[in-house]
Design brief:
38% helix, seven-stranded mixed beta sheet, alpha+beta, 10 helices, four-stranded mixed beta sheet
């Protein structure tokens, strides 16, 4: 009888231990942490996780299976979460995307997402959509091949994500070519703005506590950077923008940065300006992506740079980035 009871008890304990968890565990360590918290979010979900002084963190999350955005106050990455997962995340913010690594139960899909992001970042350069069509198609085939190889080497990822990625891969060439043609059409429309009065922004919040409109800046060239705190490519331009600002600080040009962050990231905007010692005129758009100024310039991706002349007319509606030598050449040609 005792043996029977022991066997029954053992079976019951095993059954309990095998009961699926109705939550996910996320832990890890951040080197050179940007803030005291991580935000895990989707459009329908948000949870803040405390980050300790030594960069470690751990919490449980009740989630619906899917891809979640992880935001550390300055930068972000995506990962796949599902109840029952026990994932550890490590990264160094000095090389954010390059150092994102996941381990533990359910980590395979998140590692795939991180590796895919690096491939996309390396191939979607600012000049990609400026190529002639034949050269563009060659680049796209190279991208498709790299992504196909990555997917082939990661068949163990979540089956729903694998199926979606496979479907997306089959469509990527046609979709990118469609986008390429849209970009060409957009470039032609933007070219039509040159020499005409710029669309205006009115009473945007200025970091210094005042309100600023485009008309306030007449009499100077205005170089506008449309950006957001969560945008990795935007932040990579910051050191170059600082250098250009310093080089032209006593010239007839105003450097204006317009954040299109959502209102929920307003504090992150102020914090980044302070932490990064951002110069120029720092403004917060009145309605993020839906702001009339942003819509008028058909801005669908950031960073976006715009150059306006002292009379308020458009010089270039898609100006070179600060990191491009073409920007200094443009300024020189205008005798700025």
């Amino acid at each position: 009888m005792k043996k029977t009871l022991l066997v029954a008890l053992s079976i019951a304990l095993v059954a309990c231990n095998n009961t699926p968890k109705d939550y996910a565990t996320l832990s890890g360590k951040i080197t050179n942490k940007n803030s005291d918290s991580l935000m895990v979010r989707t459009q329908a979900y948000s949870k803040t996780i405390k980050v300790n002084e030594d960069g470690t963190f751990k919490d449980t999350l009740k989630v619906t299976a899917g891809i979640y955005n992880i935001f550390d106050g300055k930068e972000m990455t995506n990962m796949f979460l599902k109840n029952g997962f026990d994932i550890s995340l490590t990264l160094d913010t000095n090389e954010f995307d390059e150092t994102v690594k996941y381990s533990g139960t359910g980590a395979e899909t998140s590692n795939y997402i991180a590796q895919k992001a690096l491939i996309n970042e390396s191939m979607f350069t600012p000049d990609l959509f400026k190529l002639e069509e034949a050269a563009f198609k060659t680049k796209v085939e190279g991208l498709k091949g790299a992504l196909a190889e990555l997917l082939e080497n990661n068949k163990s990822i979540d089956s729903s994500i694998y199926a979606a990625e496979k479907t997306q891969l089959d469509k990527i060439s046609d979709e990118l070519l469609t986008f390429y043609n849209q970009q060409k059409n957009k470039a032609n429309k933007l070219a039509d703005l040159v020499g005409k009065p710029s669309p205006e922004f009115v009473n945007y919040e200025n970091f210094n506590g005042s309100k600023t409109s485009l008309t306030d800046l007449k009499g100077k060239y205005v170089y506008i950077d449309v950006w957001a705190t969560w945008c990795g490519p935007c932040k990579r331009e910051i050191p170059f923008l600082k250098k250009v600002e310093k080089q032209f600080h006593d010239k007839n040009i105003e450097f204006v940065s317009i954040s299109i962050d959502n209102n929920r990231d307003h504090k992150a905007w102020k914090k980044m300006i302070t932490d990064e010692a951002l110069g120029g005129t720092q403004l917060f758009a009145d309605n993020n992506w839906k702001s009339e100024f942003v819509q008028s310039y058909n801005i669908q991706g950031i960073p976006r740079f715009i150059l306006i002349d002292p009379d308020g007319n458009v010089v270039n509606a898609d100006a070179p980035r600060p990191s491009s030598p073409e920007l200094i050449e443009l300024f020189s040609s205008l005798n700025i």
